[in-house]
Amino acid sequence: MTVERTRVAIVGAGPAGLLLSHLLAAAGVESIVVDARSRQEIETTIRAGILEQGTVEVLDGIEGSRARTVGHRHDGIELRFAGEGHRIDFPSLVGRSVWLYPQHEVLKDLIAARLAAGQDLRFSASVTAVHDVDSEPRVVGTDSDGAPFEIRCDFVVGADGSRSVVRPAVAGDRGNGAFREYPFAWFGVLCEAAPSSDELIYSNAPDGFALISQRSETVQRMYFQCDPSTDPEALSEAEIWDALQRRVPGTHLTEGPIFQRDVLRFRSFVAGGLRRGRAALVGDAAHTVPPTGAKGMNLAIADVLLLGDALRRLLVEHDERGIDAYAETALRRIWKAQHFSWWMTSMLHAVPGADAFDRQRQLGELRGVIESEAGQRFLAEAYTGWPLPSSF
Ligand code: PHB
Questions:
Q1: FAD-binding domain spans which residues (predicted)?
Q2: Adjacent-strand bridge partners of 220
Q3: For a tag site, which of 81, 136, 165, 188 has the least CB within 10 Å?
């Protein structure tokens, strides 16, 4: 068993863990980042792609980040319902935009930058438990060769996603949190085709929801609402295209070979605690949102800005006020994002068992948003991102 010491042990090399290691290094605080996955797995797992303007500004501070150069700026989205499209124009409403730049590209940039800066970053190293978070934390697991390790540290951070192994030590089991399950999921595809739209289309159709997103001139990302028990392999390509075409009435989608398909489950979750003693949670380890509001990675970045500053104050200035306020401050934004993600989800999906009242009420809600500048601005503010705590 190897026993090592560092100041901050970060479990998880996703956007949250990697950004935190960058912020800590800038403050002169040493850390070790461990992740159970291989570098290849992290860099190829397909995830969502919308970055808030504030997230892009944070990434601009990282050497070699391509979010602004390779990513595409989007100045609006379209809400489509009752056979008509309605554009929400972000710059005129809130003076901000979003960028379409997939999460695995963000991860390639962050991993390259952290390795170039000499970060201790360990892939294929699985943490099995976290001990003594109330005194001197210890992180134990097995490294990429299967050898046991122990990392002793001043602070441990769970940035290890929705199946976090750090969470039980901070918040107890999953049942302690606030949880909402939805009676639908998204069937997601990547296909080889030209774009069918310049901007994202969020469509509420009688058969159910569809989202038309993009990746490049030759690859597109699209989703349609399905039953959570759907087997992604059970549908033929023709059936998939039929489902997509029917759900964006008014647009003929350019079809092409589908080379990747997946079913995304919908959950809302906030852990029962975000900090205990010398341990804290960030990102999906702390909360899950359904993808309709495009908030997942952005919320993780906001947590990390807050926690990074709190840890700098704790470990460099011996000032505990930031870490003591971390959970309460982070939760304010987390619950706003929870509400926004739940709201977009409930407003846009066909709810199984909905009657005529439910259906007409939903269309009334959508009209209330698009026919009111205040309604559009509420959506645009949330989608492009509320102000972030200033970084350091
Ligand atoms: C995506 O492009 O994968 C995407 C975009 C917006 C969302 C969810 C997913 O709300």
A1: 5-340
A2: 191, 214
A3: 136
* Class of CATH domain 182-264: alpha beta
Range 88-97 average pLDDT: 98
The DSSP code sequence of 54-108 is HHHHHHHTSTT--TTTTSEEE-EEEEEETTEEEEEEHHHHHS--EEE--HHHHHH
pLDDT in tens, 41-77: 999 998 888 999 999 999 999 999 999 999 999 999 9
CA 66/CA 60 separation, integer angstroms: 8
Interval between CA 48 and ligand 1 midpoint (Å): 5
The CA 139 to ligand 1 mean position distance, Å, reads 34
pLDDT on residue 392: 41
Q: Which of 182, 202, 223, 326 is catalytic?
A: 202
Nearest CA to ligand 1 atom 3: 48
Q: What are 336-358's pLDDT values in tens digits?
A: 999 999 999 999 999 999 999 99
Q: How far apart are CA 52 and CA 58, in angstroms?
A: 10
Q: Tokens 């970084």 map to which residue?
A: 391
Q: Is 336 a catalytic residue?
A: no
Contact present, 10 and 31 (Cβ < 8 Å): yes
Instruction: Give the pLDDT band (50/70/90) at residue 389.
Output: confident
Architecture of domain 2-74+99-178+268-350: 3-Layer(bba) Sandwich (3.50)
Give CA–CA dist 186/328, Å, rounded: 32
- pLDDT tens per residue, range 118-134: 999 999 999 999 999 99
Question: Which of 287, 291, 326, 349 is labelled catalytic?
Answer: 291
Mutate to test the pocket of ligand 1, among 46, 223, 340 (most ligand atoms within 8 A of CB): 223
Residue 74 annotated to the active site: yes
From the alpha carbon of 100, which atom of ligand 1 is closest? 2
Of these residues, 74, 137, 223, 326, which one is catalytic?
74
101 is catalytic: no
Q: How is the chain split into domains, by residue range?
A: 2-74+99-178+268-350, 182-264
Which of 200, 203, 212, 222 has most ligand 1 atoms within 8 Å of CB, for mutation?
200
| Helix H or strand E segment including 171 | helix 167-171
